[in-house]
User: Fold these one by one.
Assistant:
Number 1:
Amino acid sequence: MDINKDYSNIKWQENGKLKLLIIVGTRPEIIRLAAVISKCRKYFDCILAHTGQNYDYNLNGIFFHDLKLKDPDVYMNAVGDDLGETVGNIINCSYKLMNQIKPDALLILGDTNSCLSAISAKRLHIPIFHMEAGNRCKDECLPEETNRRIVDIISDVNLAYSEHARKYLHECGLPKERVYVTGSPMAEVLHNNLEQIKKSDILEKLNLKEKGYILLSAHREENIDTEKNFLSLFNAINKLAEKYDMPILYSCHPRSKKRLEESGFKLDLRVIQHEPLGFHDYNNLQMNAFAVVSDSGTLPEESSYFTSINRPFPAVCIRTSTERPEALDKGCFVLAGIDEKSLLQAVDTAVEMNKDNDLGIPVPDYVEENVSTKVVKLIQSYTGVVNKMVWRK
């Protein structure tokens, strides 16, 4: 698919409201921003652009449907043959888009390559609002850590999830008056979709029994693309299947599937690969799982929320670092690592503690249900301030 460089057909509603551009590129951004996008479309003249970073119906399109979001107004198709080309395309396409439509402000979330569109906004003197700012895992091997530092520094207003994140931003020397703690947007999204999540019939469709399966999600670059980590993790997964002798439902990202096929690695027969699941189905599976084993950054937030509504599940994160220390502070999940001994011990601990009702405490910043309201008001409040104080407009 050719890169989209012509945005002459993209028009604002010209309704007198603040003109906000939101740029996304991956499934987690779409999910976390769902309530915020809906609120912004209500109160702003809003355009949603998708970089095409990993566009696939099962990775992106199904979530627009599940979350009742209108499709993006713009697809950049910015994916290149390698990382350098993709990053260059994202900056190039976003620059051309913003130069064409001239938004009053840009909203981005997280640490993916699509957030590097902030570089274009900075050069065009467009106020940048960055959600999920200040997250740090202190592991320089992770590509997301580089993106976090770049985007935090050049954003004009950083919207952090927690006081931990605010502290990291202050340590970077960023202006305290332009850093706000909004909380995580996930609780609002989960709350808005809770009835549909509960109504999902995915267990029946997959012939799974409540508490009779382990839910697995493993897709992160450091776990899949690094040979040593890949072999360590999936050997551990096979041992997990052997120990518990129950189905392990693997919600398998296309990159992970390709890696498994190319490597010739033989998964235990109890590990069932499944295409990426929709939002309602996946969260229903989490609620009813014997344990959830995942490298998703959203796991601590989901675990915290479901604990807050008395539907806790054993949450085990297959990583060696986390950018959400506030969730460890409250005991919302177990950090397992990716070797056999660590993973088996972590699952044992999480499962037994859950059985004993020895649960973590929901992170207050993870159960906020009015994050979208805060974000809209902060964007409205600070766009003019940034224009005056930073760009001297």
Number 2:
Amino acid sequence: MKLARIINNVESNMQSKDDAELDLLMLGKSLNSFGRSLVRGIMTGMRKLPQMAIKTKKHIGECELFTMYFDPILSALLSDPDKNVLLRWSNVTSDETGEMRPDATISKLCQRDFGPSLGFGQVKLARPSTDNHALCHDLLRLAIFAKDTVDVNKLQAAMTFQINGYNITFFLTRLRHDGMYFMQEIGQLTFPRSLEELASFVNLKNIRTLLMV
């Protein structure tokens, strides 16, 4: 697989990041729009991730977790400024969430303002205080956010994701019958913590999961 080979060459110092970016851009020209978006995300991750994983997890905060490790790939896949769609790590309320603040919101832009919310995300650090109760509470919040935005904005479905440490799970919520909502897990991944792990992350199974999102 050419994408994995390019990242492996960078990780093993056989190719510079500048040369790898040129190869990735050429590779993207032969792919569809989703494939090109994924290649852009991998390229940004290649630039942002440390060479080796940082061992001291307690020194990594929530903001650093999602901006350094998750945003490069997620923004490439979930944001599309040409279609007025943005992934925002905003932690602010919206019309659909009331007083609750999701950690991330996928927003549709309406002229110069944020319009309907198309999806949401919740983030938790992998720490002893993050137990099953905390994760279940976040999952319940996501279910409420998704249901409310489907109702308020008359959406066919809403996409949500839950981050726990470096693990992420994606869900799709639909209104199947009157008053009956179906929240389905559509994929689960462990995101890379370093350039070294990015090389092994780029495999066919993970790429298929990301392209389903």
